[in-house]
Amino acid sequence: IGRDGQFTTNENPLPRMQRTTVTTFYRSFLLGSTVPINIRSCHLLESLSLRSAIKIVPTTFDMPRLRVIQATTINAHGLISLIQHTPNLEVLEVSECIYGRSIDRDTSSIISLPVLTDLVLRLRRAIEDAMFSHEDLGNLICRFHCPSLINLRISARTSEDICTPLYDMFARSHPPLQRFSLSTKDSYGEPSPQSVSAFEDILTLIPTL
Fold first, then answer.
1. At 94, which helix (H) or strand (E)?
2. Secondary structure (3-state) at 163
3. Which of 85, 142, 192, 209 makes a 20 to 30 Å CA pair with 57?
4. DSSP one-letter string for 164-193
5. What whole-number distance in Å separates Cα of residue 182 and Cα of residue 120?
6. Residue 40 burial (CB < 10 Å; 0-12/13-18/19+)?
7. Which backbone phi and psi does 27 adopt, to 5 degrees?
């Protein structure tokens, strides 16, 4: 990371870098301590592991070598622009929080991830108004086309927030899913008949389970 807090070609041999891990001592929910990174020069990058509160500078070119993205806390605009330019992404995991809002409001455009096998999205921290809402999460998931998906783990607020977007994604993708974990805040109570019905509809689309 350069003196300005960003990856820069002037201070690092980034065009040759294939794997990187970014870690700071800041707690992931302190957005005032986010680390901005610019990976536009990392043309050979294959694996990106972000273990801090990270702000990705939006990507404008394809990164066909990038196959793994693992993040703790990441900004919505940077994440969405990144996965729109990684056609060979195999693993996408966000373990704590997506924050901010995406500039891209077109929820009808498809995000094609043809070789993605592992998708983990857990929004476990709330960050006041900067939080990427559960509605935003649903709008993102319903745009995914993931025909190779094998492992899916999702955490959402309620079943109502997520079942319809998941149904849309499965109906489009028909993946060979083998592992599926859906955790919601209402998982510990008695599910509503609507939630049960919505989940049963999802299961009809994934006969491989």
1. strand 91-99
2. helix
3. 142
4. HHHHHHHHHH-----EEEEEETTTTSPPPH
5. 10
6. middle
7. -70, 145
